[in-house]
Amino acid sequence: TVNNMDLIVDGKSQKIIGCVTGSYVEYSNQRFLDDLSKYDFESYQFQSALVVNTRMVVKFLSTVEAGVIDGKGGRGIDETRLGLACRNSMVGDSAVRPEFFMERKICENGLFCKVGGSEVSRVNHSGKSSFQSRLHTQINGTLKSANQARELVETLGAIPFDAPKLLSINAPVFEILPEQKEERKQLNEFKK
User: Fold this and answer.
1) Are strands 55-71 and 16-21 parallel, antiparallel or unpaired?
2) I need a surface site. Which of 67, 92, 109, 129 has the fewest CB within 10 A?
3) Distance, first Cα to last Cα, the chain
4) How far apart are alpha carbons 38 and 144 in whole angstroms?
5) pLDDT tens digit string along 4-28?
């Protein structure tokens, strides 16, 4: 302890790897992995884990298929990948962060759904008595949000999409919002 700060020392090299206050909760990457293994990620499969210095990110991935897209660009499966990324820094220089993300591999129908993956979800390395409780709440909240996004993608994917029918809509619909004019041009190009 130096000036009311604790030093974090690497066990093997005996080098100082961090400096924290007395409220710091030690949370190693090994314990982080152990805690993650307690959660049921249901339809998510382990994708990767990466450690850089003292920081770790673990990713899980799930795929939702919503039919086949056939158009000017070719034919392919309408696929959305939902992912969970859980991050930790064992020296406390950043919070534990469970997050989710969504990637569209192919998208033709233009339907969107808002997802909460960009919301801040983090647990600071402090508060010894409440750290595990806050961590549990944030991970469960992230899983719930990711599953809601999955349901939205599945619902949107179940809506029949008919490009020629969409193109038959009168132009005034696209004139309501100025930014829609460019989309109308793109749809007309698709029709050709």
Assistant:
1) unpaired
2) 129
3) 72
4) 16
5) 777 777 778 888 777 777 777 888 8
